[in-house]
Specification:
With 216 residues, the protein is α/β, with parallel strands linked by helices. Helices cover 37% and strands 25% of the residues. β6 and β7 form a beta hairpin.
Length: 216
């Protein structure tokens, strides 16, 4: 199956009908990843089909849980996942991408420039650093994809949430087990609003999405 067909058919499984412009943005993004991967390690896979499935489609899997016109912080963005794919399918989002690896931030800034993504910025820093330049108490959604431990990510995410904000954690097949291990301690501060188990389109890789709110 061609890359474009993977994008179109995979996005439909999450309720997204991609426009021609959005497809072109994804293809441009993919070209940038392939070019930069020759210089720095952006993704573990160099195969473009796997980049589309395991990164682009995985990123937009949380589309049903994100509201239009929201402010979203992506902690540990790496090569821009899930923040940039979400921005492509939801142009109304205000997106802040945060990563501690300077080269990856340079890459994300180049993608933002090339794709002309408005209301999108990439910041070099760590979530735990007070002076990282990211606004506290501001975001509707704090998202993180397959990095760190659940308990640590929840603690890191809280300061950035505005009133009624939610933390969205994108985990592997053991995601619910990770929550079960910490829930007795975590439920003093957090509430699991929703969870979803699913397999990626065209793959058997299982994923879990955890939607969490703060009780503070």
């Amino acid at each position: 199956m061609k890359v474009e067909e993977l994008l179109i058919n995979g996005a439909r499984e999450f309720g997204i009908e991609l426009t021609r412009h959005q497809i072109e943005l994804f293809l441009d993004y993919l070209d940038n990843i392939k070019f930069w991967n020759k210089k720095i390690n952006l993704t573990g896979t160099k195969d473009e089909h796997q980049v589309v499935i395991n990164h682009f489609l995985d990123s937009i899997s949380i589309f049903p849980f994100i509201s239009e016109n929201s402010k979203l912080l992506d902690i540990g963005s790496g090569a821009g996942f899930p923040g940039i794919p979400l921005k492509i399918v939801m142009p109304s989002l205000e997106v802040t991408l945060l990563d501690s690896v300077e080269k990856k931030v340079f890459f994300m800034r180049e993608v933002i420039r090339r794709l002309e993504l408005r209301k999108t910025q990439a910041i070099w820093g760590r979530a735990e650093d007070i002076g990282n330049g990211v606004a506290r108490g501001y975001f509707d959604f704090v998202v993180s994809r397959a990095v760190g431990k659940v308990e640590k990510l929840l603690e890191l995410g809280i300061p950035y949430l505005g009133e009624g904000g939610k933390i969205v954690l994108m985990r592997g097949k053991g995601g619910l087990g990770e929550w079960d291990q910490i829930k007795y301690k975590a439920t003093q501060k957090f509430k699991l609003l929703e969870s979803k188990e699913f397999s990626l389109p065209f793959e058997k890789h299982q994923r879990v999405i955890l939607i969490v709110s703060s009780l503070k």
